Amino acid sequence: MARYRGPKQRIARRFGEPIFGPHKALERKPYPPGQHGKTKRRKKSDYGIRLEAKQKAKFIYGILEKQFKRLFQKAAKMPGNTGENLMRLLEARLDNVVYRMGFAPTRRAARQLVSHKHVRVNGRVVNIPSYQVKPGDVIVIREKSKDLMVIEESLKHANPHQYPWIEVDKKEKKGKFIHYPERDQIPENINERLIVEFYSR
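Below the sequence we write its predicted structure tokens.
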């Protein structure tokens, strides 16, 4: 199955919130897509509610089902709350860390930077977006890539200081993953409890 490359705002309307960032589409059409979007829909089943929570998380972080399920299985084996562990693992993906540090305007753009070998982790080029960053890891934009317009423009509008689990030096275009975030520090509106229930059914 290929990664979703269709209209992003169609997905945002499906969930009723700007999961890919603010957009006028939700203001113009504050209802689900499709010919029956405006009509009253049937109440969702418990299964449907849990499935939607999982799908929403997958779309936000740009992950396919196999990867997502593997992350969940890894989270389930870790000590502590499975849902919170899952959120920490999602946040520790390299593409997400690059996005949080402000080197890319979106996770999709961050994934492209990583895939095109513009990013180093602890001095080594890593081109795997799903690479799990660990506390203490230093992420740097490669010297020959520091002048890329997408990075320059993204850093102008970025505010990485809002994420206390990372440190960023905008001038040097480098950052450090200090620790895994606590759940209440992660701003994404995701109900991880429903995801745990979905996979535990």
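The domain at 8-89+189-200 is CATH 1.10.1050.10 (Ribosomal Protein S4 Delta 41; Chain A, domain 1).
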